[in-house]
Amino acid sequence: MVPEERLDQIIARFEYLEAAMSEGGGDLARQGREYAELRPVVEAARDWRALNAEIAQARAMLDDPEMRPLAEEELPRLEDCRADLEQQLRRALLPRDVADSRPAILEIRPGTGGEEAALFAGDLMRMYQRFAEGQGWRFDVVERQETELGGLKELVANVKGDGVFARLKFESGVHRVQRVPATESGGRIHTSAATVAVLPEAQEVDLRIDPNDLRIDTMRSSGAGGQHVNTTDSAVRITHVPTGLVVTSSEKSQHRNREIAMDVLRARLFDMERRKAATERADARKAQVGSGDRSERIRTYNFPQGRLTDHRINLTLYKLDQVMQGDLSEVIDALVAEDQAARLAEMEG
Containing H/E element for 334? Predict the structure, then answer.
């Protein structure tokens, strides 16, 4: 059963926010975010309650001999609709990850496989860049180091837009590729890998960083062979001494570099805190399913067969060309649906 009392509280809060925003005053940005988050729950709740009233009316018609045939015909359809609406409402009521609405820091690095892994890392960067463009998001490169052949040694990008982290958070992990490398003359299929990390952008209120814990260095920066990135003396490297985390940014403005590097550092520290809390919750439940450990192979891209397989949900698609062009929605939708189903089962169990 859907908890009626909770629905009453949510609808009352939604109506309060609606009135407060129309009157002006207060923190309109914060009110607007909360209002937008509650809206799908309230709409589903109102539809569900309206359908319940319709079902009650149809049942009352069963006592009327003239109306009984109509009611008997309508009730099965209405009951089916209610089951669907109830499931939709339960999904809307699932506790939200507070980071879902935030921008994200995307990090890509080559794994095993040498130059082919670096080239694949570059392919992944372009895939996410195209996906972001299709979503209407901004894809800002923070740090990019290339190999001589145009592969990636490292990419750090800031992806900004609505619900970025909610859509990208399942991309963290090891991505494996199977294909004949451009550097392979014998036509043999090689297997290599790249790692992807997606971190929610942290806000200053999420955690306080003690300035005494930071070591900030200014340095000269250039791309591979000096040909990909203009040489500059403004690059900034920030080391968080307690954790050993190191972040660099190589924009032309030293002041802007410090801001960008702090954003990335804050996101990484926030991610560490979230993972620590998630692990503690999972240990307490004794029921951790899929740790999200980045050492896990999450997906295989098989180029000879045009096949993409996501191993976490046993999803296989024979549309690898479209996926590499940024058509990731089908994969991400399936991962979101699986996550919702797992959380619903956990909540009801």
Answer: helix 329-348
Per-residue pLDDT tens, the chain, 349 aa: give them: 667 887 888 888 888 888 888 887 777 777 887 788 788 888 888 888 899 899 999 899 888 888 888 988 889 999 888 888 887 787 777 667 667 778 888 999 998 888 899 999 999 999 999 999 999 999 999 889 998 888 899 998 999 998 899 899 999 999 999 998 876 777 788 899 999 988 888 765 556 788 888 888 887 655 444 444 444 467 888 888 888 888 888 777 777 888 888 888 888 888 888 777 667 645 544 332 333 333 458 999 999 999 999 999 999 999 999 999 999 999 999 998 888 787 777 766 5
Rounded Cα gap, residues 129 and 137, in angstroms: 9
CA distance 141 to 164: 16
Q: For residues 8 and 32, give the distance between their C-alpha atoms in angstroms, rounded to a whole number.
A: 20
The secondary structure of 83-148 as a DSSP string is: HHHHHHHHHHHSPPPTTTTS-EEEEEEE-SSHHHHHHHHHHHHHHHHHHHHHHT-EEEEEEEEE-T
Q: What are the residues whose beta carbons fall under 8 Å from the beta carbon of 185, sequence distance 6 or more?
A: none
CB 159 within 8 A of CB 139: yes
Tokens of 231: 């040489």
